[in-house]
Amino acid sequence: MKKNISVFALILLIITSDHAVVYGDVAYQNADSLAQIRENREIKISGKIDITDIATPATEVPKFLSLSGLPHPSNDSIPEYVSAQVTRRNKSLSKDSLCSADLMWVLRPYLQWLQNIDPHFRVEPQPVHFSDAKKADDISVFGFLSLNVNDTLIVDRSIDPLFQQGDRILRINDVPASQYLQYCYDDRHIYPFTLLTNYHYAIITALDYKIRLARKGNILEINTSGFPWKDVYLKLNRQREFQSRIFKDAKTGYFSIGEFYPNNNLLIRKLRTAILQARREGCTSFILDLRGNLGGNGHSFDRLLSIFINRSTIPYLKNERLKVSPWTLNDYDFLTSDMLGSVVEVPSQHMNKTIYLDQQLYIPGMQYYVLMDKDTSSIAASFCNILQYNGAALLAGEPLRRNALKYGETVGARFGISGLYLCVSTVEYDEYTRAVDGVLMPDIAIPYVARDYLSGRDAMLDKLLEIIESNPIN
Prior knowledge:
474 residues; seven-stranded mixed sheet; seven-stranded antiparallel sheet; disordered N terminus; 12 helices; 3 domains; 27% strand
C-alpha cells in the first residue's frame, strides 16, 4: 500500500540537513567538499528574521536537467523544447548567479515537465540556515487560502474576517498576483506561505501585507499584519477537517476529508457516523469531498474502503518497480549494492496485490459520489481510483493530474548546490484502473470556472447537488 506520501514540504516547517545533495545528472552523499563551495555562495536575507539562501552560478543550470542522478524510476529524456525554454529564461535574466527565486523561475518549464511525469516531483525554496529557528515558527502570513483558476487568485477559505470567500486577489504589496504565480506550481489550492516564500522570500522581507482585491464589483485595499504561519495552516485545515453536512433538498449527505493520517481510526468513525446519520434522515446519496487532499498515510485503508465496497477482497496492484539508490537500498531485503542505479521489479511477496475488506463495515443504501480535483494526490488519488474501478462511487469534478496513481514513497534532498529542496518518488505502481493514458477521469465532469467562484459560493459542489437533485431517484 502506498504510505508515507509526503504532503508538500512546507517551508519553515522543517530545517533540513544537507547530508544528501542531488543534481539531475550526478548525486553526492556526505560530500564534505561541497560545504566550502556552499559557504562561498551564501546570501543573507534580512527581514522578520535572517535566513541564508544560496546563489547558484547560471552556468550550472544545465546540471539540473536530467533524471539520471535522481532516485526516480522514470528514465524519460528531457524534450529539446523544454531545455531550450530553460536556456532562454536563463539568458534573459543576464545574471551570473541565481538566488532561489530566480533559479525556480528559470527551471519552471523543466519543473512543469517533471510534474507531468509525476505529480510528486516538487522543488521548493528552503533556507540553508535560520538566524532564529524559534522565531521562524511565528513568521506572519495573511490568513487565507487561495483558489487558483487560470491564474486568477480567489479567496477559498479565510481565518481573517477582513477577507471573504470569493474575493479576487489583485496585488500583494504592490506586486500583481500574476507575478507571484510565475514562481509557483499551478496548484489548484495555494497556501499563503507557499505564495510568499517562492517569490523572493517575501515571507521574510514583508513586515506586513497590503492586499488589493475585488469584491462584488468594488476594489478594496486591505492592510494586515497577518498571523503566525503555523496557526494559519492549522486553522485553515480545521475548517475542512471532517466537515459534515446534509442537503435535504437533494437528499444528500456530505463529508470532507482534507488529508489522510498516520492513524485514520477517528476519520473512519466520523465518516461512518456521518453516513449513517444521513441515511436516518432519508438521504439516498452521499458526497465525499477529496478536493485538495494531497494524500498522507494509508493506515487502515482497507477499513476505509470497506465502508463503500461490499466484497471480501479487491485487486489493487498488478506490478511494482523501484529504482535502487541509497534512499531505497535498505527498504527491501532483496536489494543489494550491486543493483544501485538500476530499476527492478518488486517481487510479489513484497507487494499489496490484493486488499482484504471487512464486509461488516459496509453501509448499503447510498449512491456515493467523490469530489476530486487536480490537487487530489497520492493515497487520495488511489482512493478515488479504487472506488471508480470497483463501481462503488461516481467521481465528480476535474481530472486528476497525469500519473497521479503511478508513483509514491517520496524522499527529499537538497537540489544541487542551491537553495532549492527536492521531493521525488522512488517507487512506481501499476494499479488496476480505468485511467486513460495515466489520467483518472471523472464520471461527472465539472470544471473550475473563475467567475463562478467570485460570488463566494462553492460552484462545483452546487453543480453536483443540482445534478443529484434532478435525478429521478430523488
